[in-house]
Amino acid sequence: QCVLSHAGGRSLYDMILTGKKVVPGISVADVSGVAVPLPCRHCEAAPCAQVCPSGAIRWTSEAGLVLVEEERCVGCGGCILVCPYGVLEQHGSRVMTKCDLCVEMLKRGQEPACVAGCPTGAIQFVSIEESGTIR
Could you tell me if 10 and 4 are in contact, meaning their C-beta atoms sit under 8 angstroms apart? Predict the structure, then answer.
């Protein structure tokens, strides 16, 4: 769902047929044979934003998100080195990629694609205040 949401595709099959770039917005690590998602924590004092020489990575106070402006990214990789969670990646290009919580969907009042597409409801999008009540 993440890839489709960011590339504007209807299905993965359609994207491959049309040659659209397939780039995940979230890192996945192999931990003892189990795929573990590594979502961006959107740190308020984001180390990745602090070391970015071009200002391509910034924390936005209005959305509370750390966003990457692809056109400004120079691909130096400094952000990869300083991220304490290891979520930034380069996928065949110089541009860094990471989870942006589907910021365009949030602006439209929708949940992030991973939440909307989770077949079991295991992924939830809640506020910090609500997180203590999840069971």
Answer: yes
